[in-house]
Every structure is written in structure tokens, then in C-alpha cells.
Automatic annotation (TrEMBL):
GO terms for molecular function: ATP binding; diphosphomevalonate decarboxylase activity. It holds the Pfam family MVD-like_N. This is diphosphomevalonate decarboxylase. Its EC number is 4.1.1.33. One of its GO terms (biological process) is isopentenyl diphosphate biosynthetic process, mevalonate pathway. It is an enzyme of class 4 (lyase). GO terms for cellular component: cytosol. Gene3D superfamilies: 3.30.230.10, GHMP kinase, C-terminal domain (3.30.70.890). Residues 7-151 form the Diphosphomevalonate decarboxylase-like N-terminal domain. InterPro entries: GHMP_kinase_C_sf (IPR036554), Mev_decarb (IPR005935), Mev_diP_decarb (IPR029765), MVD-like_N (IPR053859), Mvd1_C (IPR041431), Ribosomal_Su5_D2-typ_SF (IPR020568), Ribsml_uS5_D2-typ_fold_subgr (IPR014721). Keywords: ATP-binding, Lipid biosynthesis, Lipid metabolism, Lyase, Nucleotide-binding. The keyword Signal does not apply. Belongs to the diphosphomevalonate decarboxylase family.
Amino acid sequence: MRATAVAHPNIALIKYWGKSDIERNIPAVGSLSITLDGLTTTTAVSFNSDLEEDEFLLGGQAIPEMSGRVSRCLDLVRERVGAQTRARVESNNDFPTAAGLASSASGFAALVTAADAAMGVNIPQNELADMARRSSGSAARSLFGGFVELRLTPDGPLPTETRQILEPFDWPLRVAVAVTDAGPKEIGSTEGMVRTERTSPYYAGWVDTSEDYLAEARSAIARRDFEALAEVSESSCLKMHAVMLSARPGLVYWNGATVECIRKVRKLRADGVPVFFTVDAGPQVKAVCAPEAFDRVAAELAAVEGVSQVLASGLGEGARVVAS
Ligand code: DP6
């Protein structure tokens, strides 16, 4: 009744922002991401009939404000199996939590994977992804490695379907993560999405254009066309931040160094360096580049004032069991 799983954060190139069903956490738009290998969440789950409540430790500390979400995620696995047993969950991230580095994505992907193995059920990967999606939309994508797409399937057996598009080694891009502020973000994704949907006059335009962006990105990936992927990814990122900024009150996730990093990446690409940027609901800038460009990109970002560190990553595998 015990298993340990690892999972990596993913970063969306075509972004998810907004929900069609808040209760069931169904995204309003599909999304497309790359899974990273340089950052890891390791989660051990042990079901124990002596426990009266689930226990959750992150980095060795009890996190009461997260434990409800962890329990609800475990409930999905328990319901699937018809079990009641409570669990002790110990999770560790080797990177800053809640700073726009998608710790909830790798966290819930590792959690469902470890819980399934600890129960000995072997739930299909797409179903595990949909369970992780209930806890955090982006978490579904961390079940898979390489390039991953989450599609909306309102007429299917599950409301979303997540699948791998390319293996990590099929197009081994690298990512430099410029950390401009390692503190927790001010407004969480769920609250930010609800506010945007309720108040932004541009929200409908954001949702309406998402399928075209996904099709463009899929095609760029199939052709390994870096320039095309760069253009559509940066546009998706800026379009998401535009709709965030147009909420009332506007959501400003960037700081000055975020903007300087974006400018730097654009200048590098204009000079012929194969690199593009993306930014999530936080101030860090992720620069996606061809492997041969990585050292130059990382050095240039490290030199930007306000960048405290640059994390290095390649593309990684999906969530997997490492011990049972
Ligand atoms: C900006 O997956 O954190 O990173 O479903 O409310 O938990 P919830 O949201 P979450 O949102 C991720 C938003 C994003 C873009 C993305 O990863 O697609």
C-alpha cells in the first residue's frame, strides 16, 4: 500500500487560462506543453487503515491550506477503487514552490501516479491525467513526457483527453528558466481565471482563437519548424497576459526583470539565435531554445538585472513510479 512516483513540471506553449466548469475544473480551452526534466517532484503515498485523516507533508512541513486539495485528489483514486483508506503523502520539490514554476502540475501528476501504484490498480494513463486535471488543469499534461496536448472532449467518456505528441528525444529542445522572484505568487491561477472570465471584455476573443493556435502549434511541431513554434507560442503567451491585464482589477504577474528578459530573448532571436520566451501566472521567464543555443541564452539571461538564478532543463519523461 505504498509507492513513490516522480513527475516534472510542464510549461504550456499554447496556454490554458479559464474554465468552462469551475465545479469540475474543466478548462475553457485546450493547451499544449513541453514537460521539463531539470525540475522534479517526488511523492510517496502510503495508505494506512490506522489513519483517521489524510496527512500531507511538503518538504517535510505540514501545509494545512493544501491538504484539502490533496485529499480531494486522493478521493478520486479511492472512489475509482471503492476504497476508504486514508493516506500519508510526503512530497518534495527540488525547485521553488508556487512561483509560477508549475509545482501544482508536477505535484498532482506525481500524486495520482503514486496513489494508483500504492493501491495496485493500474489505472490507464489518460484516466490518471483526467484525475490530475480535476485538481489542477495543467497537471494532466505532466502525466506525459516530451510534447503534450490536452484536448477538450465534451462528447467523449472523459471531458478532456491528454496525449503525447512527440517523445522528448524527437525534438530535444532546452529551456532556461530565469527566476526573477522566487516568492509565492499573489493571486493563484483559479482565482485569476475566474476574475478574468467575469470581468475581461476580451475573454470571449481569448477562448474563440484558441483552437487555431493549437492547430498552428501542432503543425509547427510536426514539421520541427522552430520559427513557427516560436511565433505562435510567444503570441499565445502575450495574448494570455493581455486578457489577464484586461481583467478588473487587472492581473499583473510580471515585474521589471520579466520585461527585460522578454526583450533580451526577442533581441537574441532577431540576431539569429533560435530561442523564444513564455511566461505563466508568475514573473519567471522560460526561454525555450535549440540545444546549441542554450549556453548563450542562459548567460544572457543571467546578466539581466533582477534575475537571481537561471535553471537549466531539457525535455523530460512523464510521471512514473520509482519505488513501491
Ligand atoms: C498560466 O493548472 O495552475 O500556467 O486548474 O486552476 O489549478 P488550475 O490552474 P493551473 O493553471 C495553469 C495556468 C498557466 C498556463 C498553463 O499552464 O497552461
